Model the fold of this input.
Amino acid sequence: MDLRGTTAEVVAALSRWVTGTDDEPLVVETSGSTGRPKRVVLSRRAVLASVRATARRLGGEGRWLLALPASYVAGAQVVCRSAVAGEPPVLLERHESLAAAVAAGVPDYASLVPTQLHRALDDAEDVAALRSMRTVLLGGGSIDPSLRARAQGAGITVVATYGSAETAGGCVYDGVALDGVGLATETDGRLRVSGPMLFDRYDGEPGLTARALVEGWFRTEDAARIDEDGRLQVLGRLDDMVVTGGVNVPAPVVARRLQEHPAVRSAEVLGVPDEEWGMRLVAFVVGDLVLADAREWVAELHPRSWAPRQLVVVEALPMLANGKVDRVQLAATAASS
Done:
């Protein structure tokens, strides 16, 4: 089943599908933010495994607020969780605000992306609405620690999720794998995931499927570290790793660390060609910081080899039309600094 049509049409079709008994799979497209979108084929068994594992982790089933597109896996899972619970989802698009939607539907849970939470925290009524829920799942990208701290300070119960269409949505909550999910890393740090919620294949792409699904494991495109207690730390996409002086440095992790500095409002880190280091790690910050302090700040929490070797202070990070940082322009700025 493909997820096409209006939100109401997709919600109705998904609700019928998840409670059905035939063998028709669900086809979900990836966002394509890192390349061409892929069509991910999910069995009903996999989706239900995710639904049930989520309910166990959150402490029970309930009604969900649908604040994300139902055609993508995070929104589709909101619909499926609601259908299994026997509670139709509350559709945010039918209300003038998040607070109005919550007041009308009284959902127990919501699934948001960081941008949505950031905007909600600027509205007192939306804050009260989110505070009334049992849990707000937060996924769809890296989470600024200050954003989560603000939410928790406002009394909102936030759980950070990690997952993808290939894992039928979030499969790791606050660094801890859901029941039945296995985590491992390869020699290059690539994260592998196993479990009953894995996808069956990429539609029409057997070669890509064979590379991604190996002996019951999904080989992700993410680099990660697994602590001794089994807690997952995602370092970023493999193509965000900067090899500098023979050391693999996860640039997004360094950027997140710099964002935690009290003198920094925002930060981005990337590698630029360097004769001595191969790639030189450069930090771009909006704020009042010097290189020596930046290096010490990073080295307090991470290996000193992860500390940036150049720092460029900018008035604002250049952005592309899609809202992502213009890394090409930053690289040009580093070369001319």
Q: What stands out?
A: The longest strand covers residues 264-274. The chain is about 30% helix and 30% strand. The radius of gyration is 21 Å.
